[in-house]
Automatic annotation (TrEMBL):
Designated name of the protein: RNA polymerase II subunit A C-terminal domain phosphatase SSU72
GO (cellular component) term, any one: nucleus
Reaction(s) the record says it catalyses: O-phospho-L-seryl-[protein] + H2O = L-seryl-[protein] + phosphate; O-phospho-L-threonyl-[protein] + H2O = L-threonyl-[protein] + phosphate
Pfam families for this protein: Ssu72 (PF04722)
Primary enzyme class: hydrolase
Lineage of origin: Eukaryota, Sar, Stramenopiles, Ochrophyta, Bacillariophyta
Family membership: Belongs to the SSU72 phosphatase family.
Source organism of the structure: Cyclophora tenuis (Marine diatom)
Length: 241
């Protein structure tokens, strides 16, 4: 269950607006050696349900000016319910606004899902795009637009690689750099790792002219210099589609 966020304490429930302002985040500062004003690379960010970790990264990277789309690899969108045995489940493609309304159908439900932070996640999602997207159901022409895919859990990293390896190769046989930044599935950790992902993406963006040769070195240096606070390894795999 996601812990209640310190930013959301209101006990009242307002209906979700038809048009929501995009969530704001600090845009981040590009590395000194980055001279690009516009994003050259396209980034895919992936978690399980496309509502917490990948959506946090979607907002952070997008607000920083990077080209990004977000996805989930689960079979369904699973949200924390009143107990571990009672998750709220939705199909991929269900609009965030529809999920919000379902979770807030009664005053008691609205108060509960506001406290555990799930309504805020649905509200944020609705402000960015229509609905959660499933990675495995994404057509090849959309997948191959991405130069870099960041997964926020090792099993999701494995699922992305397996999917890329089992798809029919495209005519262009395009390289896709898949990276894992393992992140606990709660809003606080997602927020922290969203900033970490942004830093890594700027480093990759600065090497966009020769990414195939430079990406492994960048990821290795990032692991050694930026990830000293955690024993988690940054995983990397070059795939083609």
């Amino acid at each position: 269950e996601f812990p209640a966020s310190k930013w959301f304490r209101s006990p009242t429930m307002a209906p979700i607006p038809t048009r929501l302002p995009r969530p704001s985040t600090p845009p981040g500062i590009a590395p000194p050696d980055s001279v690009k004003k516009l994003s050259t690379l396209s980034f895919g960010v992936v978690c399980s349900s496309n509502i917490n970790r990948s959506m946090e990264a979607h907002v952070v990277l997008g607000n920083a000016g990077l080209k990004v789309e977000s996805y989930g690899t689960g079979t369904q969108v699973r949200l924390p319910g009143r107990s571990a045995m009672e998750p709220r489940i939705f199909k991929f493609g269900t609009p965030y606004e529809e999920m919000y309304k379902s979770l807030a159908a009664t005053q008691d439900d609205a108060a509960f899902f506001m406290r555990n932070g799930v309504l805020q996640l649905c509200r944020r999602g609705a402000a960015v795009k229509v609905a959660p997207q499933r990675w495995q159901d994404t057509p090849p022409e959309a997948v191959t637009k991405h130069d870099v895919v960041i997964a926020f859990e090792e099993r999701i990293f494995d699922a992305v690689i397996e999917d890329l390896q089992t798809r029919e190769p495209t005519e262009d046989f395009k390289p896709i750099h898949v990276i894992c930044l393992d992140t606990k599935d709660n809003p606080h950790e997602a927020q922290l790792q969203g900033r970490v992902a942004l830093e890594l993406c700027w480093m990759l963006e600065s090497a966009s002219d020769d990414l195939i040769n430079q990406a492994p070195t960048i990821v290795d240096a990032f692991q050694k210099e930026r990830m000293t606070h955690t024993p988690i390894q940054v995983l990397y795999q070059l795939c083609y589609l």
